[in-house]
Amino acid sequence: MAEKTPQTYANHSRLDPPFHIVQGPLGMIAVILSLILFFRSPSLASVLWLILAVGFLMGTFRMRIYALKVQDRVIRLEERLRLAMLLPESAKPRIGELTERQLIALRFASDAELPALAMRALDDGLSNKQIKSAIQNWRGDYFRV
Predict the structure, then answer these.
(1) Which of 38, 55, 56, 82 is the most exposed place for a label (fewest CB within 10 A)?
(2) Measuring CA to CA, which residue among 90, 93, 132 is closest to residue 113?
(3) Angle CA 142–143–145, to nearest 5
(4) Using one digit for the tens of pLDDT, what is the confidence trace for 105-142?
């Protein structure tokens, strides 16, 4: 099995070809073509095609959003458990203060730098981009959809 390219801040975003290259553009094309059909020859059939195309596009994006939301919830749980193991006792009560976006960004931090970075995120209110750019030893997430 080929080695995965190590993830970094620069390359951690992931392209999902079936969604980004096929399904999303097809949905947009379907909506555009059905709008053209509707305005060129308005009829019940053109209205139905437009409704169908919009429904397809909405369904496509909702499925993607649902999958990402479930992953975000799992990541949030994993990171809270990880923080509970790695933070000093005095800092553990503050785990609940981290936002969802902060927890998701902290998943890329190595175990060694996680406690200090989590405390910085809490004390300074770091955004997810600030957290990701502050990470020195990147821990890749290769399972993200």
Answers:
(1) 55
(2) 132
(3) 115
(4) 999 999 999 999 999 999 999 999 999 999 999 998 87
Residue 21 DSSP class? I
User: What single DSSP character describes residue 5?
Assistant: P
Each domain of the chain, given as residue ranges in start order, spans: 16-71, 87-137
Roughly what angle, to the nearest 10 degrees, separates helices 44-86 and 24-40?
160
pTM: 0.76
Half-sphere exposure of 54 (CA within 13 A, CB side): 8
Residue-wise pLDDT for 53-97, tens only, equals 999 999 999 998 998 999 999 999 999 999 999 999 999 999 999
**Distances, alpha carbon 115 to alpha carbons 48, 75, 95, 138, in Å:** 55, 17, 11, 14
Q: What Cα–Cα distance (Å) separates residue 124 from each residue in 50, 86, 103?
A: 48, 20, 15
φ, ψ for residue 138 (rounded to 5)? -70, 130
In 3D space, the residue among 47, 3, 13 whose CA is nearest the CA of residue 132 turns out to be: 13
Which residues are registered as beta bridge partners of 138?
109
